[in-house]
């Protein structure tokens, strides 16, 4: 049989992307090269006088990293660029808790219980759904669900990278969707309302931060189905059968749960319930320190949402510790310390990646190159004279391109909203629709952007199963999700647009004075 023909043009194209991408240097080397390129580009841009004017009328120029001040900055900031790299603390602190849950045997036993009790046909969907819903816990899904997806698939005898990809797609490409209100809703909504008020203040007064809520609820269901199909029909068949080291052992370990493990799981579950109750006392009552006395309509601004990392640490540490005591895998405090230490030892490659990526991200932000490019791209689209569907698609394309250079969703929207919300209102499109377009384009391109902060840790997790995994492997694996999510999400939006379904409470698609 001619397997080459059977794979088809699309699959062969992904293979080509993987080959080219994996011929690039090691990700650590690549980030250092990116940093060097930014330094050189900053010198060139400064010499040529690259600059833009922001929404406040301030001129933003290129900061020359090869100037005396720039060189001093690079030396003085080297340590803080590393320690201040956004995902570093989140990942390491969370992994300390996960390490106890993993090395005590809790995660393995829980997965065995899951595999033996849940229909295998639903596991992929459950993984994608869990990833989408994880945006309630900010970026925790990257740290918790992506490695969990790989372990779960390996335990079923399926390719672990397919499980990792399904979780990554849910967490990152489905970031804007959720059944509940997340911190992203007030963050983007406030910027949209402010931008709309510059064009029509009376209309802006009637807007609310839940302007996309109905659409995002429907998106959870649609993206879960689509993510499941992409995983099982495209990604997993392309990856083939996993023959990596330890694959047979992992599958063997998933066969049954022993009585001691069952007892440990029940006690761990009881500890989770007790811990949840105690944490709730810190959040739910008005006097709770993690609520800070905020009323219900401002609860999303509570300190609780800024303390999720230590809370996740506790939620893994306590049940892992309890499980270990019950099953005798933890006998004293030395065992706990050793298990944490062993976990940190496995994070060596990620720490090196974080150092290199931290320098690059800091240089790129300090040079102002990203802001200058993004403002120019936004200005080009605003002046292109596009109308109707061409403007809609052009806007989404520009957002996707900018997302490669600026990862923060709120940072991009802070300068794009004042430009595009009034333009779209002038053409008869509601601000609520413009925000939805932005959220779709931003989310679906997260998973194929090597500059996305958590891209490095996903590669590190993948290399546990295949040392040869590089940027090319991950991007080629995630491209099907990006393409299909973009198409299906856009079609879904068109259905909302042309059937007159509100995007959220009182949020129409079209605008008129």
UniProtKB/TrEMBL annotation:
Superkingdom, taxonomy of origin: Bacteria
Transmembrane residue ranges: 28-51, 71-101, 113-134, 213-231, 264-284, 304-326, 347-364, 384-406, 413-431, 443-462, 474-498
Stored Pfam families: ABG_transport
Per the record's keyword annotation, is Transmembrane included, yes or no?
yes
What GO biological process, any one, is recorded here? Answer: p-aminobenzoyl-glutamate transmembrane transport
Q: Name one GO molecular function term.
A: secondary active p-aminobenzoyl-glutamate transmembrane transporter activity
Official protein name in the record: Aminobenzoyl-glutamate transporter
Q: Report the source organism.
A: Jeotgalibacillus proteolyticus
């Amino acid at each position: 049989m001619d397997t080459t023909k059977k794979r088809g043009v699309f699959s062969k194209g992904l293979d080509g992307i993987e080959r080219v991408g994996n011929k690039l240097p090691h990700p650590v080397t690549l980030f250092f090269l990116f940093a060097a390129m930014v330094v050189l580009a900053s010198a060139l841009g400064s010499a040529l006088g690259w600059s833009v004017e922001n929404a406040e009328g301030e001129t933003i120029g290129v900061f020359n990293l090869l100037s005396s001040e720039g060189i001093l900055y690079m030396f003085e900031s080297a340590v803080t660029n590393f320690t201040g790299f956004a995902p570093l603390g989140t990942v390491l602190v969370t992994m300390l808790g996960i390490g106890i849950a993993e090395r005590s045997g809790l995660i393995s036993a829980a997965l065995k219980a899951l595999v033996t009790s849940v229909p295998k046909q639903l596991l992929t969907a459950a993984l994608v759904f869990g990833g989408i819903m994880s945006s309630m816990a900010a970026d925790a899904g990257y740290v918790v669900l992506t490695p969990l997806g790989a372990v779960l698939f390996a335990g079923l005898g399926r390719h672990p990278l397919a499980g990792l990809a399904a979780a990554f797609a849910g967490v990152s490409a489905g970031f804007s969707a959720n059944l509940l209100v997340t911190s992203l809703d007030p963050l983007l909504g406030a910027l949209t309302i402010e931008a709309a008020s510059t064009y029509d203040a009376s209309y802006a007064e009637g807007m609310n931060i839940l302007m996309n809520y109905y659409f995002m609820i429907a998106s959870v269901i649609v993206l879960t189905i689509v993510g499941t199909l992409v995983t099982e029909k495209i990604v997993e068949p392309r990856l083939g059968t996993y023959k990596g080291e330890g694959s047979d052992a992992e599958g063997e370990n998933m066969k049954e749960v022993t009585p001691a493990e069952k007892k440990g799981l029940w006690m761990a579950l009881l500890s989770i319930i007790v811990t949840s109750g105690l944490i709730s006392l810190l959040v739910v009552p008005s006097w709770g320190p993690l609520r800070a006395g905020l009323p219900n309509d401002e609860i999303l601004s509570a300190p609780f949402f800024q303390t999720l990392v230590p809370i996740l640490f506790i939620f893994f540490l306590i049940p892992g510790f309890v499980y270990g005591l019950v099953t005798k895998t933890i006998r004293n405090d030395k065992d706990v310390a050793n298990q944490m230490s062993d976990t940190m030892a496995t994070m060596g490659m990620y720490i090196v990646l974080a150092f290199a990526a931290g320098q690059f991200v800091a240089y790129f932000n300090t040079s102002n190159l990203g802001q200058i490019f993004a403002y120019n791209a936004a200005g080009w689209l605003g002046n292109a004279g596009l109308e109707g569907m061409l403007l809609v698609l052009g806007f989404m394309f520009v957002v996707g391109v900018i997302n490669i250079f600026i990862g923060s969703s709120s940072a991009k929207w802070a300068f794009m909203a004042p430009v595009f919300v009034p333009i779209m209102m002038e053409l008869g499109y509601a601000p609520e629709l413009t925000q939805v377009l932005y959220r779709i384009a931003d989310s679906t391109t997260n998973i194929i952007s090597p500059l996305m902060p958590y891209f490095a840790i996903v590669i590190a997790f993948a290399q546990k199963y295949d040392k040869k995994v590089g940027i090319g492997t991950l991007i080629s694996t995630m491209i099907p999700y990006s393409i299909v999510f973009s198409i299906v999400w856009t079609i879904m939006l068109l259905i909302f647009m042309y059937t007159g379904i509100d995007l959220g409470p009182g949020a129409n698609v079209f605008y008129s004075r």
